[in-house]
């Protein structure tokens, strides 16, 4: 998505440790009109895939999941990190390892919101090592739902998560794929 | 908002301890089309107020903030709970007490995303004792921005947060106000 690549070049900040900050539009300040535009692009990519539900993970996946749900006219479910008092009853749950924080965390989805009748599109803001995505795929499998695929806004193509999932046969689309960002010089994979 | 009251009656579940579960459309599964409709109602309520930015708090405020931002054509900022590696530079921060979890937590907003030029509308899913809202108002005051008011989707009118803020002169609108919900029998305040 050319407009996203341009926005990353214009507003993104590369920090040491291969960290890309896009807090000006994607995961702190939300450029809502642009997020709705990304949602329409996701809808275009998965047109005809029979998606009945978007699945994402709190917190920074929620905005783009709403954008995708609005464009596809389907509800979204956000998986919760750690169990809270507001999620009860039967649960799907899995454990995700966070490289950023060096810890494992539980991810839960109430079983009433995902079923074998669903065709699920997983949406998230970033795709790097793919651990969060793997956790969400595990939850989709527990529910018996079909998996249409996964979309990230920004994929760090120099990490292995996206390509490993593609090699396993999962349809993974990213609106922008960064192949390198050494010395603050961001290079995108042609799509 | 009549449609929201009807949805609460139809899909909400009252649990012991005055807990209202609306996970089927507002804070776990997201009824995206309905959230966009709530956003349009928020835009209607604050038409002409000169709002330049929506402010909410992660995680469950994000969806309705996106709905409001889309309808009002303004960006949204979500405050983060506890400081993470992705928020750096100058910060506005405050401490919020959570009755649900019995703990205090830090709330931060990067100073680059809120300034004295902004007119801010605070948006959240629930308003009960008002502690989260007070924290967000504190952050707005630190930034020097003007406060247009605050909107919650669902206010627990039998707790004091909303009415205390109104008594202080803050414009507080709620799309539905529950005056009582004893024995699972939900009564709304006429608006």
- Count of individual beta strands of chain A: 11
Distance between the termini of chain A: 8 Å
Tell me the series of helices and strands of chain A, N- to C-terminal: HEEEHEHEEEEHEHEE
CATH class of chain A: Alpha Beta
> Looking at the structure, what is the overall shape of chain A?
globular
Radius of gyration of chain A: 16 Å
Structural class of chain A: alpha/beta
Strand order of the largest sheet of chain A: 6-7-5-4-8-9-10-11
Percent strand of chain A equals: 25-35%
Q: Which second-level CATH architecture of chain A applies?
A: 3-Layer(aba) Sandwich
Helix % of chain A is 25-40%
Assembly type = homodimer
Number of helices of chain A: 5
pLDDT under 50 segments of chain A (min length 5)? none
Most residues in contact, chain pair and counts: A-B, 39 and 40 residues
Report on the architecture of this protein:
The structure is a homodimer of 191-residue chains. Chain A is of the alpha/beta class and 191 residues long. The first copy, chain A, has one domain: 3-Layer(aba) Sandwich (Rossmann fold). Chain A is 29% helix and 35% strand. Chain A has 5 helices and 11 strands. In chain A, the strands form 2 sheets. Chain A has an 8-stranded mixed beta sheet, sandwiched between helices. In chain A, a hairpin with a 4-residue loop joins strand 6 and strand 7. In chain A, helix 2 packs across helix 3. The first copy, chain A, is globular and about 50 Å long. The model of chain A has no long low-confidence stretch (mean pLDDT 94). At the A-B interface, strand 3, helix 2, helix 3 and strand 5 of A face strand 3, helix 2, helix 3 and strand 5 of B.
